[in-house]
Write a structure and sequence with these properties.
245 residues, Rossmann fold, alpha/beta, 8 helices, 2 domains, 54% helix, 5-stranded mixed β-sheet
């Protein structure tokens, strides 16, 4: 729970709002997680007379406590400073996937006189808990969100297991040489490493202007791990092909 006291005297900008966007992983950042949420919030705000003056984007698990979220904390602080008393979210799960975490956050917003609106349903998530109907509906949405997450995790795990059983790599980063721009250098290094050693391979790659994925230049250690990963992957594929014969 966020302990910083609210500044009620500045809560005057009733038509202004913040948009809070949350995804759980970097993969969702690279896809359309933030874009989809932002578009939904923008459409709702335009249709309901709200002016979104700023969006806050955060990549953090929905089960993490709100006081451990840097962006979330900054948004509440800015709201106190700028007099913004409304936060728009795509749905209840953007506040939190965990029901307890969600209720703690919403209770803190009530004390600060901040309204949190779910644009998917138009529901005010910060209505007083004494309203049994609204509380029941909000809790049901939270339970459904958690169920959908559990289903997604189950399907993803089952899919990974099926792919692994087929002998195909399905997890982890792509090995060096996977991308076209790396293939030529990788093949040369694989062919000459036994003769030259990793230190000399690194020196020659740097001299040719080849860059590693991270860092500015190759080192003996980087070459070793790159080639080891590539070799293991090729051996896995070879063994799988033999087992299929």
């Amino acid at each position: 729970m966020i302990d910083k006291p609210a500044k009620k005297s500045k809560k005057k900008a009733s038509n202004k709002a913040y948009g809070y966007l949350r995804v759980s992983s970097r993969g969702q950042v690279d896809k359309d997680g933030f874009t989809r949420q932002k578009q939904g919030i923008t459409r709702w705000a335009e249709a309901n007379g709200k002016e979104v003056i700023r969006f806050y984007e955060e990549c953090v698990s929905g089960t993490k406590q709100v006081d451990e979220r840097v962006v979330f904390y900054r948004m509440t602080y800015d709201g106190d400073e700028e007099g913004v008393n409304c936060i728009l979210v795509e749905n209840t799960s953007r506040i939190a996937r965990d029901h307890i975490v969600s209720e703690i956050a919403l209770e803190d917003f009530r004390k600060r006189e901040i309204t949190v609106l779910d644009v998917a349903t138009g529901m005010d998530l910060t209505v007083p808990s004494q309203d049994p109907t609204a509380l029941f509906i909000r809790r049901m949405f939270s339970i459904v969100d958690q169920y959908q997450k559990d289903q997604f995790v189950y399907r993803t795990r089952a899919s990974r297991e099926r792919i692994r059983e087929s002998g195909v790599r399905c997890e982890g980063g792509r090995p060096w040489g996977w991308y076209p721009e790396e293939k030529l250098a990788c093949e040369w290094a694989m062919k000459n490493v036994d003769r030259l050693g990793t230190r000399e391979i690194a020196r020659r790659l740097n001299a040719m202007g080849v860059k590693p994925r991270r860092g500015k230049k190759f080192t003996s250690r980087i070459v070793y791990w790159y080639l080891r990963q590539t070799k293991e992957l090729r051996e896995e594929a070879l063994n799988h092909n033999r087992s299929e014969e």
